Amino acid sequence: MAFSSSLHAEITRTFAEWTALSALRSGSPVKDRATIYPALARVRFDDLFDANAGAISDEEFARWHSTAVRQLMRELDLPAGWAAKLINVYLKTRAYVPDAGRPELLNCLHPPLDGGLWRGLAKRFGKRSAVCQFTNARTRIKDLVSYEDYECVIQGCRMAARELGCRLIEVDQLWLGASVGQTPSDVMPQSDCVGQEVVLWDAEQGSQVIGTIIEYAEPGLSTIRLASTTDSVVHLATDGRSHLGRWHLLRALDGSFVIPDEYRQLHPNADDAGLAEWLIESATQRGPTSQDQQ
């Protein structure tokens, strides 16, 4: 069968749309495909893949990226952080992975921002480094409200890329999720979780119980309130356990998050370290990665 470059491009494009949509499933205020796919189709991505347009400069890409992100911000009513993540994940899949697009495009692409990358940057350069003065100005995607907020974090990523001797998008090599397996943002409920059905472990009865999240408090404010099937109410801390240790959060029924078995086995008591701290400690204890040694 003859190779079809047009077929390859179409498959890559549709897969890029899917990966961009998938990147919104944890925490984004908008995440349904009926809304996201048409909005992505209206972004002028083809300007970056026009074989007759010649090499793209940093300045041209910066203008294109700002325009595309602001367009999604308006159309989807998203903060800049989530709109940029849509763009960046799409281009990581469609351009970086297959090495496609106009000459020099790969040198312009931005890394998708998430908690794993923020933590990786802090681990590699130190929280008080010049890099982290920029990247830690905001450390949650939803707090990157304006494009200027987003660009501040990207400026820190540019500094990191220069230190590492890599492309800007390749700062993604520091993403800690690869060494931990899952990051705190992936394994705990997010701010849009109210109404979500979850599975709890009742340590007193030795059985699983289905519950529904009826109230959410921001991580750091310590509690998530859930209602069990018997309509009783339990309060869970940000490590997924009740104060006295009877109730343990296990997973969401829809699979959007899962508390690692290893964590629950190592930390059965209520006075143990929280989940987020454990995950970060696990990454540290595994020792430096090959990227750390470069």
Order of helices and strands: HHHHHHHHHEEEEEHH
Measured on Cα atoms, how large is the radius of gyration?
21 Å
Structural class: alpha+beta
Q: What's the number of helices?
A: 11
Q: Strand-residue fraction?
A: 5-15%
- Count of discrete domains: 2
N-to-C CA distance: 43 Å
Helix proportion? 40-55%
Which strand order does the major sheet show? 4-3-2-1-5
Overall mean pLDDT: 77
Shape: globular
Pick out the low-confidence regions: 178-186, 266-294
The major pleated sheet works out as: 5 strands, antiparallel
Number of strands: 5
Topology:
Layout: H1 5-22, H2 33-41, H3 58-76, H4 80-96, H5 115-125, H6 130-135, H7 147-164, H8 177-180, H9 184-187, E1 197-202, E2 207-216, E3 224-228, E4 233-236, E5 247-252, H10 261-266, H11 275-285
Antiparallel strand pairs: 1-2, 1-5, 2-3, 3-4
Helix pairs in contact: 1-4, 3-4
Structure characterization notes:
The chain is α+β, with helices and mostly antiparallel strands and 294 residues long. 42% of the residues lie in helices and 11% in strands. It has a five-stranded antiparallel sheet with strand order 4-3-2-1-5, with no helix packed on it. The chain has helices spanning 5-22, 33-41, 58-76, 80-96, 115-125, 130-135, 147-164, 177-180, 184-187, 261-266, 275-285, and strands spanning 197-202, 207-216, 224-228, 233-236, 247-252. Strand 1 (197-202) and strand 2 form a beta hairpin. It has two domains: 5-180, no CATH class; 186-283, SH3 type barrels (Roll). The longest helix is centred in the N-terminal third of the chain and has 19 residues, at 58-76. It is globular, with a radius of gyration of 21 Å. It starts with a helix and ends in a 9-residue tail after the last helix. It is built from eleven helices and five strands.
